[in-house]
């Protein structure tokens, strides 16, 4: 039976009523130049600075330069990330500012600067993301640094203490123990409720593997994340890495947790940013760094904070590392970072090669806020230690002229020698606050003045064993009360006298 015209028109009308147009607009641009991980794009008129753009399915980039007739984009990747991009390729906006995965799923993992796992343990199971750039907490949202972050290193906890929420710089030449101090500090956070993030910028891949294995061996990877942008990675990933680590830390901070971030090191970070800036044809300034190099680090380090109680009282402690050339702390990047941070730990070449390790120069090292958070027991035993050691170093130089010394000067030299010996410490061997207080108490109260310098280390090792076995209550009281009462000091004196008499007798037979 043939269809009637009105039936045909009725069917067509019904189908037209059901039909809905779907229009999608995309902002696209064209690559006009590419090379050295930098692409120039024409046509992305409404793109934002810091926005992610997509070149192909696997290649992404971030907008850094907004110019009159083009956009400068850094391309992400490890080995020649721009090798698959050519002139005339289409680039799409994503509408997203660059962000990284965050949350507790990242703990115990090794990830790259984009938060992608590189440890072979499968994907990171998290649905939380944070933009890598965010505003630092304002004055109202913060509270003064009031809790101690114990490093386990006698010389630091006694003379340049670090508080939770502080920014303490480690500055020195290469191969003088900067990373060793940071790793010891991470190891010492075991059982203290502090999450750690180690950001490796421009390090050799073998160095990152060594750090990972060391933390694994010491049981520290249970609360640590490693963000790696090794020397193999492009300058763009080295530039992103500290901001990614910072975003991961902020997620924990705003959850009311305590977190420590080590940036190792910001010298290589500044060099990566200088490389990107010169390739983007930004005008160079001092030492060829761009004009906003100070802002590069200030907007990163200002995000460290101790939050107020209404925001959960979490803390974000930053330990940036800066490498100097020939001990020159007056060059551009070191002076910039010194002016941003709340103090610095300066390691000296001469001390390091003389066997004083950690090689901390007490004259140039300072903690501007950590003293307020220092454990009271440590403050009681080490209040004059910094001044005494600084005077001792001056006296050592003075005695090289061969002048005759009075008794008080000789006593000062004897005490200084023994205190220097006490503050020496092996790597990966952080000490509890009670052990630090006990051995420094021995030194500052003259118990070691009549011992040979060569026997100090032996005395220390045996003294700790003796106290653990015979007087565990003393260490427990120091750990719990965090201050020394008159009765406790009398008990310490009696225990030290008893041990010392046995030690002297055993070592003179």
What does this entry look like structurally?
There is one protein chain. The protein has 509 residues and is an alpha/beta fold. 39% of the residues lie in helices and 18% in strands. The chain contains 16 helices and 19 strands. Strands 8, 12, 13, 14, 15, 16, 17, 18 and 19 form a nine-stranded mixed β-sheet that branches. It has a six-stranded antiparallel barrel with strand order 1-2-5-4-3-6. A hairpin with a 2-residue loop joins strand 1 (28-35) and strand 2 (38-42). The longest helix has 23 residues, at 486-508. The relative contact order is 0.11.
Nutshell version of this structure?
This protein is an alpha/beta fold and 509 residues long. It has 16 helices and 19 strands.
The helix/strand class is alpha/beta
Estimate the global geometry from the Cα principal axes.
elongated
Number of helices: 16
Average pLDDT score: 92
List low-pLDDT spans.
none
Termini separation comes to 125 Å
Radius of gyration: 29 Å
Q: Roughly what percent helix?
A: 25-40%
Q: Main sheet, how many strands, which sense, barrel?
A: 9 strands, mixed
By DSSP, the count of extended strands is 19
């Amino acid at each position: 039976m043939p269809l009637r015209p009105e039936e045909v028109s009725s069917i067509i009308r019904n189908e037209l009523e059901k039909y809905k147009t779907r229009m999608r607009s995309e902002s696209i641009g064209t690559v006009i130049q590419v090379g050295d991980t930098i692409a120039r794009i024409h046509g992305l008129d409404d793109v934002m600075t810091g926005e992610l753009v997509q070149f192909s399915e696997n290649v992404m980039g971030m907008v850094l330069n907004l110019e009159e007739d083009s956009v400068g984009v850094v391309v992400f990747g490890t080995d020649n990330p721009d090798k698959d991009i050519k002139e005339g390729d289409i680039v799409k906006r994503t509408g997203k500012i660059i962000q990284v995965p965050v949350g507790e799923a990242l703990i115990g993992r090794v990830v790259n600067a984009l938060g992608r796992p590189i440890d072979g343990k499968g994907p990171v199971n998290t649905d939380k993301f944070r933009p890598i750039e965010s505003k630092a907490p304002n004055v109202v949202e913060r509270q003064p640094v009031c809790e101690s972050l114990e490093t386990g290193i006698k010389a630091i906890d006694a003379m340049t203490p670090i508080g939770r929420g502080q920014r303490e710089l480690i500055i020195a030449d290469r191969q003088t123990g900067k990373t060793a101090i940071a790793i010891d500090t991470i190891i010492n956070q075991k059982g203290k409720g502090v999450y750690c993030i180690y950001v490796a910028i421009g390090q050799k891949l073998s160095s990152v593997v060594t750090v990972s294995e060391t933390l694994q061996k010491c049981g520290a990877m249970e609360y640590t994340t490693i963000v790696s942008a090794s020397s193999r990675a492009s300058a763009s990933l080295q530039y992103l890495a500290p901001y990614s680590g910072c975003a991961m830390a902020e997620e924990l901070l705003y959850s009311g947790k305590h977190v420590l971030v080590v940036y190792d090191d910001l010298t290589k970070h500044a060099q990566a940013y200088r490389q990107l800036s010169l390739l983007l044809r930004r005008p160079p300034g001092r030492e060829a760094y761009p004009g906003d190099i100070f802002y590069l680090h200030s907007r990163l380090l200002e995000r460290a904070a101790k939050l107020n109680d209404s925001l959960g009282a979490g803390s974000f402690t930053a330990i940036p590392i800066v490498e100097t050339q020939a001990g020159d702390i007056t060059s551009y990047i070191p002076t910039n970072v010194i002016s941003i941070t709340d103090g610095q730990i300066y390691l000296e070449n001469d001390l390091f090669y003389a066997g004083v390790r950690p090689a901390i120069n007490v004259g140039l090292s300072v903690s501007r806020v950590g003293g307020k958070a220092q454990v009271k027991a440590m403050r009681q035993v080490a209040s004059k230690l910094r001044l005494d050691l600084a005077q001792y170093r001056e006296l050592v130089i003075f005695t090289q002229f061969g002048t005759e010394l009075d008794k008080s000067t000789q006593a000062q030299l004897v005490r200084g020698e023994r205190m220097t010996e006490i503050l020496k410490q092996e790597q990966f061997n952080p000490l509890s606050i009670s052990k630090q207080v006990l051995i420094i108490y021995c030194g500052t109260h003259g118990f070691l003045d009549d011992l040979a310098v060569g026997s100090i280390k032996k005395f220390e090792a045996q003294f700790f064993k003796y106290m653990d076995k015979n007087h565990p209550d003393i260490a427990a009281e120091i750990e719990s009360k965090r201050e020394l009462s008159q009765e406790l000091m009398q008990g310490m004196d009696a225990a030290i006298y008893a041990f010392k008499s046995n030690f002297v007798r055993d070592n003179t037979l």
